[in-house]
Amino acid sequence: MSPKSYTLLQLNSLVRMAVERTLTGEYWVEAELAECRERGGHCYMELVQKEEAHSATSRSRQDGTLVARASAKCWRSQWALLQPYFERIAQQPLRAGLKVKLKVYPQFHEAYGFSWIVTDIDPTFTLGDMARRRQEIIDQLKQEGVFDLQKDLQLPLFCQRIAVISSESAAGYGDFVNQLADNGRDLRFVTRLFPAIMQGEQVEQSVIDALNRIFAEADQWDCVVIIRGGGATSDLSGFDTLALAENVAQFPLPIITGIGHDRDESILDMVSHQRVKTPTAAAALLVSHLGQVLDRVLQAEERVARYALQRMEVERLRLSRLAERIPVLFSLVRTRHEARLDRLAQTMTAVLRQRIDRENTRLQTFGTQLFTMADRRLLQERHRLELLQQRATALDPALLLQRGYSITLVNGRALRRPADAPPGTVVETRLAEGTLHSQVINTPLTPSKQ
């Protein structure tokens, strides 16, 4: 007998009844949000579980192997209560990448399949997981030896060329530029914006891309400033990533951050060269630094001028004393040097005469040898030309024609193979006396090699 078969609806109905009879309660589940989107007032989530990395230096949860996946839904009536509650406690919205603790019950629908229905959420679990991940990143940066690299850098004395990473439309960027321009001391700065996304899930890659663009022309900049204009504390999560912290910590230019508030310190703030509260505070820091350098320059200018005046007075007195001694010293020196110049002139005259006599003798010897060598070389070259003329005469094609040979040409070129003269080709045959023109009727086959 053939086994009993079911329709898909019947089979799914059996599954639904089995789920409803077996899983009758609600369950707290810990998982990671792979996807979280709101539509029509409902929240649709994709929950995953990844195999935890054994090493504490694992770069992120993305390194783990996926071991479980499920869909979850929070209906509009419940989501309207849970969403503000979670954001108030966790200080950020639900988003992909967060670990969450949800109270769920199972639901299987014949047409839409299985999903978990969310009835409650524990934001304190997410806060604890974020704190743990944050500490893991800090520990790994210290283990890699890059946590304090930026602190070892120094702002250049004349730190005036500023590369700015910020949102193009951020008010904080405008405040930063205005603060630099209206500094009250007529200090000049050159700034250029490298636009980046400063909140949301794209913060990490966007800021890294901006750093890469600055690195490509690093010799044109003195430092980098990363700023954002206000925003909620929850927006700081994008600055607590390992990849971004490593890029900032190992960047060759000093990086100043002004992305949060006084009570909120991101990992990016920790690894940067210097952290300030706001974009205007970052501008004030640069103005103060350059102002201190200007004060040092002005003080040095005063010291140099004062020292120059003192030194000029000392040298003036010294020159006065020397001027009194110059007439006597000059008379002695002149007499001594005039005698020395006379001796040098006599010596030079004798040396020049000896050298001229020696070179004249050498030139006469070279003249005699030159005539002898020229005659010998001319004789050799004349003999060589006679040999070449005899060889050229022996290779004259006209002599070959006189001996009974002929030359067959096609289009002015010597014919070497039958294949180069297909049927119908007009060929020219040159003889010792005259030329023949003929047309090829057929081309004989080339004898095959034995």
Please describe the topology of this protein.
Blueprint: H1 8-22, E1 27-39, E2 42-50, E3 66-74, H2 76-90, E4 99-109, E5 113-121, H3 123-144, E6 161-166, H4 171-181, E7 190-195, H5 203-215, E8 223-227, H6 242-249, E9 255-258, H7 267-271, E10 274-275, H8 279-394, H9 397-402, E11 407-410, E12 413-414, E13 426-430, E14 435-439
Parallel strand pairs: 3-5, 6-7, 6-8, 8-9, 9-10
Antiparallel strand pairs: 1-2, 1-4, 2-3, 4-5, 11-12, 11-13, 13-14
Helix pairs in contact: 2-3, 4-8, 5-6
Describe this structure in words.
The chain has 450 residues and is α/β, with parallel strands linked by helices. Among the domains are: 8-126, OB fold (Dihydrolipoamide Acetyltransferase, E2P) (Beta Barrel), CATH 2.40.50.140; 145-279, Rossmann fold; 401-438, no CATH class. It is 47% helix and 20% strand. It has nine helices and 14 strands. The protein has helices at 8-22, 76-90, 123-144, 171-181, 203-215, 242-249, 267-271, 279-394, 397-402; strands spanning 27-39, 42-50, 66-74, 99-109, 113-121, 161-166, 190-195, 223-227, 255-258, 274-275, 407-410, 413-414, 426-430, 435-439. The strands form three sheets. It has a five-stranded mixed barrel with strand order 1-2-3-5-4. It has a five-stranded parallel beta sheet with strand order 7-6-8-9-10. β11 (407-410) and β12 (413-414) form a beta hairpin. α2 crosses α3 and α5 (203-215) packs parallel to α6. The longest helix has 116 residues, at 279-394. 19% of the residues are buried. Mean pLDDT is 85; it is low at 54-62.
